[in-house]
Specification:
255 residues, alpha/beta, TIM Barrel, 8-stranded parallel sheet, 8 strands, 15% strand, glycolysis, isomerase
């Protein structure tokens, strides 16, 4: 049985005051009896404070990105060792905003995925198509190519899938991120099932265990229908994760 993961991506939002209020608001409503895991990914500059505040609770903390490099003259970058050193346990890789705004290729994302695993972090591999790609019927072609970059990094697809199974996949249709438009539960399930079927062609057991999150304007109003789908194992939440009550409402639905 796959565990559900509810992850909040705070993107470039917040101040020290608002982050502390948000973490306190989430912590005060967390229930240790929930079977689901709960994760937040604050901006780098607030990682240390968030991790300190999360201690003693079931709230996990992750980074929003990491460098594929070990260390060195890479101004502005943050390494996997630095994230681990602070106590982060997860890291997002290949978020659509990193791909579209900062030109990250699938190959670079695969390098980052591998570096995260190497450093003991659990990578959340973000995949998804643009509106144009969906309309021309190439959703799965795009998603498979993004997944293949990670599988091919390890040269052998069976070995690649073993590594992919150590992380999390987040399907985020780019056309539904920050737009208020959400894929219908049926649309989301169709892609999630297709991803799992694709992985099952390599190894059914690993495919059955991989967590696949939905990311694309999930909120408390639609979370129940989305999370009820067979192959949706949680959510990567954007705007709704910036409000403690709204984020917790999704967590309660996940249970």
């Amino acid at each position: 049985m796959r565990k559900t993961l509810i992850a909040g991506n705070w993107k470039m939002h917040g101040s020290l005051e608002s982050v502390e209020a948000l973490v306190n608001g989430i912590k005060s409503q967390l229930d240790d009896n929930w079977q689901s895991d709960v994760l937040v990914c604050p901006p780098y500059i607030y990682l240390d404070r968030t991790i300190q505040m999360a201690q003693g609770s079931k709230l996990a903390v992750g980074g929003q990105n990491l460098s594929e490099q070990e260390q060195g003259a890479f101004t502005g970058e943050v390494s996997g060792d630095m994230l681990s050193d602070l106590g982060a346990t997860y890291v997002l890789v290949g978020h659509s905003e990193r791909r579209s705004l900062y030109g990250e290729s699938s190959q670079l994302v695969a390098d980052k995925y591998a570096k995260a695993l190497e450093k003991g972090l659990k990578p959340v591999l973000c995949v998804g198509e643009t509106l144009e790609e969906r309309e021309n019927g190439s959703t799965m072609k795009v998603v498979k190519s993004q997944i293949d970059a990670v599988l091919d990094f390890y040269q052998d697809k069976e070995q690649g899938l073993e590594h992919l199974g150590q992380g999390v996949i987040a399907y985020e249709p780019v056309w539904a991120i920050g737009t208020g438009v959400t894929a219908t539960p049926e649309q989301a399930q169709e892609v999630h099932a297709a991803i799992r079927d694709y992985l099952a062609e390599i190894n059914q057991d690993v495919a059955d265990k991989v967590q696949i999150l939905y990311g694309g304007s999930m909120k408390s109003a639609n979370a129940e229908q989305l999370l009820a789908q067979k192959d949706i194992d949680g959510g990567l939440i954007g705007g709704a994760s910036l409000k403690a009550d709204e984020f917790i409402a999704i967590c309660k639905i996940a249970g």
